[in-house]
Structures are given as structure tokens and as C-alpha cells.
Amino acid sequence: MPWIQIKLNATAETAEAIGDMLMDDAGALSVTFLDAKDTPVFEPMPGETRLWGETDIVALYDAETDMDAVMSILKASTLLVEGFAHKIEQLEDKDWERAWMDNFKPMRFGQRLWVCPSWCDAPDPDAVNIMLDPGLAFGTGTHPTTSLCLEWLDGLDLNGKTVIDFGCGSGILSLAALLLGAKKVIGIDIDPQALQASKDNAERNGVSDRLELFLPKDQPENLQAEVVVANILAGPLRELSPVIKSLMAPQGKLAMSGVLEAQAESVADCYRDELAVNEIIVKEEWCRITAEKA
């Protein structure tokens, strides 16, 4: 079916509230946040004001939606400045699922780990195989950021350890940790669809009994783990650094990605006050930052 999407720019302070408004008040079917510095999604039209915030918001609607009504809701909001930049466009009506399935093939990460589409046979039945169907959530292993995190997990001894997957998406990193021996994984994501995708993939791989999933507002207090992985974006990694550091148990290990090489030092600097930051690893302009807690 055809779709319409609207793109807006927001500041770090307003992005989540605007996203909630688009979903709750303006009827969006889904809302996606992009790092505006990494992935500029539009140029403002004459007379429009770009907020030059850190986050671009993309909201998806059924093609029959009255977008004038949506715009009326946005223009009445105090979260956006008058004449704010926006772009409304129709998406091509094509079989996106089939196109995606045709390009997603089994992939190996590190020495032990394979990620395989749920509709394929595992190339090495004796390896650690993640059977994955990402559904509506990000994370197949094809992006360098996910690949970097999978390779890091493959190199750890996770036996008996608790892992926190901060921004779990499809659950690919959670599944990898569990299949590599973790005692328990706690997945956290702001998107309920991501939690559902993680749950479905965990059931498909027979590890749902060791995976706990939470929205940030519902996660347990004083939560900590020996291993924390956060594959999100540079802006949230900087802004949420106190939260992410608090999730690490003493002598805990942390891996972060979703960071471009030019952003790596500014992200790492937000963690050096409490953590020992290791060498930053670069893959296709994207980075993995790892650190340890004393």
C-alpha cells in the first residue's frame, strides 16, 4: 500500500515530545528519529525556519490521511517555531518486504557468530546462529554499527553474565549475547514496536525466558549489568551518558556505536570522567567506542 511521510527537525529537548504528539494526537503509524548531523533529510523551503536541532523526525501515515489536519495540529503546538521547516512526500508503492528479503543473506561476525534470515538455513549448523526477522525494528547486522557491536560481543566471555542492550531495536545484540552464553539480557527501547520485534526474535531463537524488555519509563530502579551495549546515535549517547554509565556494574564493560568517526572523540569525552576508554575502532566511517568501569 502507498504511504505518506512528513519530516520535521527538532531539538534534543523537544524531539521526544514532538514524536509523542505525532503518534498520539496526529495519528502517525510510526515515528523514526534520525541524527540530523549525520543524515540531513531535507532542505527547508523558502520562508521556512529550520531549528538546527540534533534530531530529524520522520512520521509515517496511510496515503489517504488528511495531511492538512496533521499540519493544523503541528502548527498549533508550542513545541515548534512559527514557519518551521517540514517536508511531506509520498513513498513509492512497492513490495518493500520482498526487496528487503532478497538482499538479507546469512552473515558471519567474529569467530563463532552467524546472523541468518529466518527464512534461510544456517550455513554452519554447529556455529552460534541467530535466526532473525527484524520486522519493523532496525538491526540486521548489515550496518557497520551493528556489525561492530556483534564482533565485540563475539570476543567476550559472556558466560553467566548479565547484559543490558540499550536501544535494543530488533533484539539482534540481545540475541547474540544470550546465544553466546549470557545468563540474562535486559533490552531497553523507546519504541514499543522494537520491544515486540525483540520478543518475537527471542522466541524464534528459544531464548525468550532469559530476555527482559522494558520501555525506559518502566525499567527497574538501580539497574546494573556486567556488560552494556548501546548502538544508538551520537546525540543520545552524549545526552544520556550519565544514564548509560549508571547501568554499568563495577568492572563492567561498555560498547557504543551509531557514531561517525568525526563524532567519536566528543562522545568518548562524555565517558572519560568515570570510565577508561579504549582504542576507538573504525569501520566504513562508523565507530565503536569501548570502555571499562573501575
Major sheet description: 8 strands, mixed
Provide the low-confidence segments as ranges. Answer: 38-49, 93-100
* Alpha-carbon Rg, integer: 20 Å
Q: Averaged pLDDT, please? A: 82
How does the overall form come out from the CA principal axes? Answer: globular
How many structural domains are formed by the residues?
2
Q: Helix proportion of residues, in percent?
A: 25-40%
Tally of strands: 15
Q: Roughly how many Å apart are the termini?
A: 53 Å
Number of helices: 9
Features:
30% strand; 9 helices; Alpha-Beta Plaits; eight-stranded mixed beta sheet; 294 residues; Rossmann fold
SSE layout and pairings?
Blueprint lengths: L2 E8 L4 H10 L5 E6 L19 E8 L4 H10 L9 E6 L4 H8 L3 E3 L3 E5 L10 E5 L11 H11 L7 E5 L5 H8 L4 E5 L3 H13 L6 E4 L10 E7 L2 H6 L1 H6 L1 E13 L3 H6 L5 E3 L3 E3 L2 E8 L1
Notes on the protein architecture:
One of its GO terms (molecular function) is protein-lysine N-methyltransferase activity. Belongs to the methyltransferase superfamily. PrmA family. With 294 residues, this protein is of the alpha/beta class. It folds into 2 domains: 3-91, Alpha-Beta Plaits, CATH 3.30.70; 142-293, 3-Layer(aba) Sandwich (Rossmann fold). The chain is 27% helix and 30% strand. It has 9 helices and 15 strands. It has helices at residues 15-24, 67-76, 96-103, 144-154, 172-179, 192-204, 234-239, 241-246, 264-269; strands at residues 3-10, 30-35, 55-62, 86-91, 107-109, 113-117, 128-132, 162-166, 184-188, 211-214, 225-231, 248-260, 275-277, 281-283, 286-293. Strands 8, 9, 10, 11, 12, 13, 14 and 15 form an 8-stranded mixed sheet that branches. Strand 9 (184-188), helix 6 and strand 10 form a beta-alpha-beta unit. Helix 4 runs parallel beside helix 5. It is globular and about 55 Å long. The N and C termini lie far apart (53 Å).
